[in-house]
Amino acid sequence: MKSSVSNCPVPTDQQPLNEYEQLKTSWLFRDCTLDWRQYLTKMVWIWGISWLVAGPVAAASFPPQKNLAHFILSGAAGASVGVVLTLVRLYLGWLYVRDRLYSMTVFYEESGWYDGQTWTKPPEVLSRDRLIVTYDIKPILQRLQFTFAGLAGLLLIGTIVWHLL
Question: Quick one: which of 4, 24, 48, 91 could link to 122 by a disulfide (CB 3.0–4.6 Å)?
Answer without folding.
Answer: 4
